[in-house]
Amino acid sequence: MSSSVLDQRRLGVRAILEAIAAGSITPGDVIRESRRRIDAGDAEVKAFTRLSQVADMPDRGPLAGIPVGIKDIFDTADMPTEMGSALYRGHQPRFDAALVAMARAKGAAVMGKTATTELASLDPVETTNPSAPGRTPGGSSSGSAACVAAGFCAAAFGSQTGASVVRPAAFCGIAGFKPSYRLLPTVGMKTFAWSLDTAGLFAASVADVALFADRLTDRALTIPAEFDLSGRTIGFYRSKVDETIEPSMAGAIETVRRWLEDAGVRTVDVAEPGALHEARQSHTAIQGYESTRALMHEHRAEGARMGPKLKAILDEGLDVTPEAYDIARRAARIGRKAANALFEDVDALVAPSAFGPAPEGFGSTGDPTISKLWTLTGNPVVNVPGLATDAGWPLGVSVIARFGRDSHALAIAASIERLIANR
Amino acid sequence: MSSSVLDQRRLGVRAILEAIAAGSITPGDVIRESRRRIDAGDAEVKAFTRLSQVADMPDRGPLAGIPVGIKDIFDTADMPTEMGSALYRGHQPRFDAALVAMARAKGAAVMGKTATTELASLDPVETTNPSAPGRTPGGSSSGSAACVAAGFCAAAFGSQTGASVVRPAAFCGIAGFKPSYRLLPTVGMKTFAWSLDTAGLFAASVADVALFADRLTDRALTIPAEFDLSGRTIGFYRSKVDETIEPSMAGAIETVRRWLEDAGVRTVDVAEPGALHEARQSHTAIQGYESTRALMHEHRAEGARMGPKLKAILDEGLDVTPEAYDIARRAARIGRKAANALFEDVDALVAPSAFGPAPEGFGSTGDPTISKLWTLTGNPVVNVPGLATDAGWPLGVSVIARFGRDSHALAIAASIERLIANR
Question: Which family does it belong to (chains A, B) (predicted)?
């Protein structure tokens, strides 16, 4: 029997779990529908690199009936983990990554592995953007964002060393949640730069990603029904980077600000402190130093088989001395304190998730510059979908909260998402 | 032609590199001698689980001629990485772990994989203690400590989540260096608890381990010739844990204190602050929570095939809630600040490396309680060898320095080692 939940363009975590709880659908119904959609649409979207067997999916647990896409840098025991790289063709791990094991333990249905740029770096993949034809879905978690945006899966796992969760979520017009550093375990996820790599999640809406994260981690992350924005203070973060954002994105930020004020929210400008400007600059040295060590054997033995953007990062990283790395780490540490201090005056910050909508074509996954600051500081960031350019390309707005206040980031982001949806 | 360097009971990093630089031996001489010793002695010591091909060893680079043993939780592309576990029998990684790749890039000779307790936990292995017959070499880095103590290798890689570098170094009477958290990359090293796991090094003496670490990392860690202890202040760290140390260890600590004072060093008592007592208690919850996630698939799918001590840690870890984990992490964070504050008044701290010498027999790898505090806080710790019980069993003394001041920890430890050697 067909159900309205399964007729929606996108599969919503909350709607699915409510329908299953109400007995109107079964986990198996959702899993079959997910697979049907993948079979029908993925030849065009190219979100998946490999599909799992639908027969053995769990039918009980708090996430039973939630079809999940797994970025192909997370180990899976039942499917190869190829990391978008010729170097890992056919590579078969013996056990699941921590996050994959957690999802399965909760009953989630792992539908397959999703396309990632090589080793979660910058060389584009073939995945298309279901929300913006002819444009990149962003990266490096390209397939994970696309499989949710296309309505194939209700949730997906990604990772972010620069902007690889927030950016594709913004470009594809879905919710992306980059939690506080190490809220989600990265064990069994391929390392690029260990002090930056952060596992993250995608879902259709902020409420969906929050509920999924809650059930996955047993943390109180679901949006409280009574949460109310009015009377709160939201800071609008301004940095030098903003000078080059596109007019459509500048307009989106101003729109959100106006609507927040209409809703009784106090808004203030927050200028980037010098310490965070410095911290932003330090990202390159930290990523360079750590990635050349994390991938030293791959680079030395098989560098010639790597994509040009990945190889360039690793080649340049060799020039970062331990002294330069230590200076960069110090800047990052000072930046983290400065980031914390920002939240003494505001409940959350709002900033662009990217410079504009997804760029045209597939030659680049877009510019990660804006988001990488918050990857470095470790603050939770939620991409709020719902706004778009005049042509209809999604524009993403980031909500950033204090380190460890992930539930707060999600609740404020969900309120802004509702505000947008209700206009 | 035989050389005096290769006639020593233990292979010294510094002596080897000096002899190679002087042209009196070649890297190949050392590698062949290392292999000869392994072939002659490892049937008794059981340090190695697998040996590599000697034919292809590098003959140039700043660590050429340094034979190294690799704890079998570090990935190696040319040998299986079995982690002391039936679950990983025959497991063959595609690329080397970061630290292994760094060692090879510097010209070090990877002689083989060394015995580790299962997944670097507490279930003992068959390795014997070359410095204390009939006694455990300690764990979890049992084979790495033993291969250096037996004179098979000049250096070895280990790891520490509780006390798995400092304790075996102490029990085997060699130098062990647990650097500041994440000074050495842990990429490609099996994770047990990500906020605790620390890669560490073994060598015959403190000067040897410092020189090896220097050349491995390109950091200025070699002991400066002009380094002088006199006029400095060394704190003797006292906690509740000390109430149960054995008389031989209490005597060793008092001996070091007297000799330091004779050498013009100011010594003071440093009582464990409340915050560090709390931090010590938090280790169990952090390790429990993280290990049950890091090893979730292994535990769920194959728990019945695990050793009883490992399985017990994972079973109990399931009871640690996210709330309890967050409380423990907060205690750890406060503890790290308290640990830093200790070094405003002292140049370094001295504490026992274990409760006494290696316990008799092979049923346990010894008690990790003393050292795990400094694993949690991330401070650098160096085990200083040279003292012994009346029966001749090694007693290890730890030198602890401020986070990030690894060169300082090594220099002070080397001075104390010299002080001991000269009495």
Answer: Belongs to the amidase family.
- Residues contacting residue A319 through CB under 8 Å, at least 6 positions apart: A288
- Is B191's CB within 8 Å of A187's CB? yes
Provide, rounded to the nearest whole percent, the portion of chain B with pLDDT above 70: 99
* Omega of the bond leading into B140 within 30 degrees of 0 (cis): yes
Pull the structure tokens for residue A81. Answer: 């983990």
Cα(B368)–Cα(A252) distance, integer angstroms: 56
Looking at the DSSP assignment, which residues form a beta bridge with residue A399?
A350, A382
Domain B4-217 grouped into CATH 3.90.1300.10:
yes
Q: How many CB pairs under 8 A join A and B?
A: 80
The answer to whether residues A214 and A222 touch, using CB atoms and an 8 Å cutoff, is yes
pLDDT (tens digit, 9 = 90+) per residue, B11-32?
Answer: 999 999 999 999 999 999 999 9
Alpha carbon distances (Å) from B13 to B56, B171, B201, B207, B222 = 21, 20, 12, 8, 12
Sheet holding B109-114, edge to edge: B48-51, B109-114, B67-71, B155-160, B198-203, B175-178, B381-388, B394-400, B348-352, B233-238, B266-271
Q: Which residue of A has its CA nearest to B197?
A: A187
A positions 38-97 inside 8 Å of B (CB): 77, 87-88, 91, 94-96
- Cβ of A217 within 8 Å of Cβ of B185? The answer is no
**Alpha-carbon span B198 to B148, nearest angstrom:** 19
Does the pLDDT of residue B2 top 50, yes or no?
A: no
Judge if A4-217 and A234-275+330-421 fold alike in CATH terms: no
Report the residue of chain B nearest A320, measured CA to CA.
Answer: B218
Q: Distance from A291 to chain B by nearest Cα, in Å?
A: 10
Is pLDDT of B379 > 90? yes
Residues of B in contact with A87 (CB under 8 A): 94-95
How confident is the model over B252-271, as pLDDT tens digits?
Answer: 999 999 999 999 999 999 99
Third-level CATH fold of A234-275+330-421: D-Maltodextrin-Binding Protein; domain 2 (3.40.190)
- Report the pLDDT averaged over residues A79-105: 98
Closest CA to A111 of A30, A28, A53, A55: A53
Residues of B in contact with A191 (CB under 8 A): 187
Which residue do the tokens 């503890």 mark?
Answer: B335
User: ipTM score of the complex?
Assistant: 0.96
Would the CB atoms of A297 and B218 count as touching at under 8 Å?
no
Which of chain A's residues have a Cβ under 8 Å away from the Cβ of B77? 297, 301
Give the domain ranges of chain A. 4-217, 234-275+330-421
**Assigned token pair, A17:** 């779990």
Which of B 281-340 lie inside 8 A of A, CB atoms? Answer: 290, 293-294, 296-298, 300-301, 321-322
Q: Is the preceding peptide bond at B121 cis, omega within 30 degrees of 0?
A: no
> At A192, is the secondary structure helix, strand, or coil?
coil
Q: Is B102–A301 a contact, with Cβ atoms under 8 angstroms apart?
A: no
Q: Which tokens belong to A257?
A: 């600000």
